[in-house]
Amino acid sequence: MESEREEDGRGRLGSTLSGLAVAVGSVLFLGGFGWGALVYQPYTVPTDSMSPTVAAGERVLAQRLDGDRVRRGDVVVFRDADWGGSPMIKRVVGVGGDTVACCGDGDGDGDGGGLTVNGESVEEPYLSGRGPASPDAFTAKVPEGRIFLLGDERMGSLDSRTHLKDPGQGAVPRSAVVGRLDAIAWPLSGGVIERPESFAALPGGISEVGPVRWMAASIAAGAALILAGAAYGPLARLLGRRGAGRGRAVVDAGS
Q: Could you tell me if 17 and 232 are in contact, meaning their C-beta atoms sit under 8 angstroms apart?
């Protein structure tokens, strides 16, 4: 009788803990998705103009924010009537007051192949392959309140270089920004889009990645707790049947 009461007590405790795990897991799981819905807007990348950072067809998460929070190196989603009005994804390489140029080596003699910002050479590890950072040389002075945007696939991207003769020399207003890319949601192997350290030494530095890691951790932890809690009942019953079977075998052997 004492053994039966102990087993019943352990069973009730296990059921309580499994129910608690499912409840907490549900809060974390649904809370993570709810948090993400408030902070992030998903987009499908329409072209390869930002390859290899993001490719056509990939699903990305853009943090909803004001354009005033954008820094050099950020990959942003924006809408601008002069660019057709549709959502576009490009990388910010210059902000108001900057002089962006290519292709030079930072000393003004034009014998290099990299991007310069205010005469300082900027490494761009997100570009694929070797060669100049732009097939066509350009220089642009970015007006205050605007940002200069380039695609990572410099050979085919239609970006600020295409609009150099427009007002603002191809730079778009900060108010046109509707989001900043933080992660590739699909495929799952895409991961977080890190900020390039090459822009960190420039005034204003680089931005921080949003809460996407915490959101993903909340969803993953919630899913694990839900699965663990839901698995308790079947496992307990299976172990109980095995224990009962061993008990009967001992009794039979004794008889």
A: yes
